[in-house]
């Protein structure tokens, strides 16, 4: 069974910086040790650098045997001055405009806990750490605050790092490191070349989205002891690379991963066709057991640990948890990865007496709402159950009212702004509620106030044009060029349609009627003009921004209007102003248009003729390139907020891909990967099945 490993490598000419090199060497040894401890049958991802930085900070507050065990277990440099200098140089090394590599340390300290002044100065100056007092006893609020900060620092890639089970009345300090990495390919994978392909797992096969690069020169090296090829894919930035290791035996490679991670390799260059699966991977790793296996014992023992350089006396502080959460996504654009590692000293967990308001079945709401505190939970549909990301607010006071006729509770969640709220309606029967929603929306309600724990499912709605699907039938082995234009438009109404005024209404089609969601604006002044030749009224609805409008044309006869639309679009119109009640249906529209036939009807002929078209200013000679397809796909959505629209148009020239004699490097089997920056291991992981 073959295997793949990939490596992200950033190398800089800093050999003379011995402290930095010693820290890099120490981190890579730690990476090798951690990999051996974590190696199992499934996917995983770990950031040795994130763990190393937070462990270095923790050991800076330790003494005697506790400090020595942490230093040896994490393979930290034996000299404290060398370690501090190396950490400082790592922070300086990470500043680069060509890619994003940002790491931040933070120390949360229990209120009224006296932190040692020398440790505070060391943490701030050497480890770039900020300190913040927090009430760990209010665990839900503390969890939300910590997770919000982590999500901000990792661009929302790491969510729900901590939970209420690791914090409580006895928590004294929480040390957190966050790390974020983002780099684009120097030689891109074009998304039009991505296609479903077979990936061979150890015992089976699965279908993955396989990205491709054709006939490009790359660095590589071969390890005959491992029977593996290492392909080096460059990313933007000086010496930033992803190294992919394709082995014939995953077991043999994994047994030697320590040497692979620690040792640089001499490379050659050759031409390759590369196939690499697009994937996303997230892991949550308990580093406490890993460190115990690496000989760290006293730091975890109540009464034996000595963190008296942080606070208190020997035995008063000990580590209860060390956890890391990681994320990586590899796609056609490049690589994005993040990690967060936390160390808790002393823990407890307390409950609260708040009322429970758990939205785990269909409910009506008025406006989107987002929280960072989420976790998978069961949601009860009408006929089944499903798993959703459930957002939470803990022990907060809210307005509410209960409707006993509907057997429903209405919870009012305030948003920023005066009198802006989200009301969530949780009924025992969704059918009974929906039958009475008109009365619910029209009538104000008297509310009470109480303390609630709120669980609300998170949802996201996106609209996108899938060019891959659009193009799959028009591209092939002879495609030479593809010209693409994309356009996106988004604007909000100047005079909004209030969603509470939207209601089902009759819409008259040519031959029938249908029910639509009709939006309303009442007694507002708008520009308009009337065209008596077309027997049509043109109403101009302004959007935010100078001279941005949506003009709605309402004719008595749609056929007569369409016959004259050319003149309507070309000629400016003089408008008047008047007061209107406006009723406009909420709608969404998508189209796919073959512009080739349109252009042929407009007299464009030679561009589509093989042998006659002349695009020699692009490539080749006259007759070698011709247009085979011109297609546009469009989207528009009009709702109470405003208008969102998009379009994509492409032109395909010729269709052929000439063969090449490039070596094949097809990553279609389980693989290991690691990310390096200046030879420093930032991430290491394994993918058995790409997700």
TrEMBL record:
The keyword Phosphoprotein does not apply. CDD domains: serpin48-like_insects (cd19955). SUPFAM superfamilies: Serpins (SSF56574). One of its GO terms (molecular function) is serine-type endopeptidase inhibitor activity. Residues 32-376, 388-690 form the Serpin domain. Keywords: Protease inhibitor, Serine protease inhibitor, Signal. Pfam families: Serpin. GO terms for biological process: regulation of immune response. The keyword Signal applies. This is Serpin peptidase inhibitor 22. The gene is AUGUSTUS-3.0.2_05754.
